[in-house]
């Protein structure tokens, strides 16, 4: 059985810097373009049609997220060549970074899978993870799955983030009670 150490809500988001295809370095969890929070979406890789569909759907919520101060970045363990090929299937304007290592996947508490064949991919890959990191570098929201079929509904997530971001609601980070 695999051992895993999940990244807890309320914990500090690990410092992970990866490159985009244009060579720009992005630190996951560090908001850009005037945003104060960042949604970090970890996807399986170009081989996953469900990831492609989910990422394309997320693009439709980019503006609403920007209105509440949340930007988006997507990352995978794919190589630059795999990302370049995948971008031909994506209709997104938020940044993608590549080369997430197994040690970085473990630091994020992601489930890691072994490819079923060489046709799927040529490396171990992370199963889906979604983290919303607040202005303090703290994990505000975390969703980690062990397969491509379980992911947060984007509309529900964005509506929830809008509610959390409203200062009148004074909504704390949930799931932080000690064991």
UniProtKB/TrEMBL annotation:
Q: Which residues cross the membrane?
A: none
Quick check: keyword Oxidoreductase in the entry?
yes
> Ranges for the Thioredoxin domain?
7-166
Please give the InterPro entries that the UniProt record associates with this protein.
Redoxin, Thioredoxin-like_sf, Thioredoxin_domain
Q: Which UniProt keywords apply?
A: Oxidoreductase, Peroxidase
The reply on keyword NAD is no
Q: Which Pfam families match?
A: Redoxin
One example GO MF annotation: peroxidase activity
Q: What protein is this chain from?
A: Thioredoxin peroxidase
Give the originating organism.
Enterovibrio coralii
């Amino acid at each position: 059985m695999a051992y895993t150490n999940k990244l807890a809500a309320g914990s500090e988001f690990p410092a992970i810097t990866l490159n985009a295809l244009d060579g720009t370095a992005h630190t996951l969890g560090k908001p850009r373009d005037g945003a104060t929070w960042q949604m970090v979406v970890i996807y399986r890789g170009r081989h996953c049609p469900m990831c492609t569909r989910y990422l394309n759907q997320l693009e439709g919520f980019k503006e609403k997220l920007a209105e509440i101060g949340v930007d988006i970045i997507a990352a995978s363990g794919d190589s630059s060549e795999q990302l370049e090929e995948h971008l031909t299937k994506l209709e997104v304007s938020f940044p993608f970074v590549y080369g997430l290592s197994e040690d970085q996947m473990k630091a994020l508490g992601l489930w890691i899978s072994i490819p079923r064949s060489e046709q799927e991919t040529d490396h171990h890959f992370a199963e889906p993870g979604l983290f919303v990191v607040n202005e303090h570098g703290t994990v505000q929201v975390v969703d980690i799955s062990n397969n491509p079929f379980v992911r947060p509904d984007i509309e529900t997530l964005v509506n929830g983030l809008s509610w959390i971001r409203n200062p009148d609601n004074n909504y704390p980070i949930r799931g932080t009670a000690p064991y």
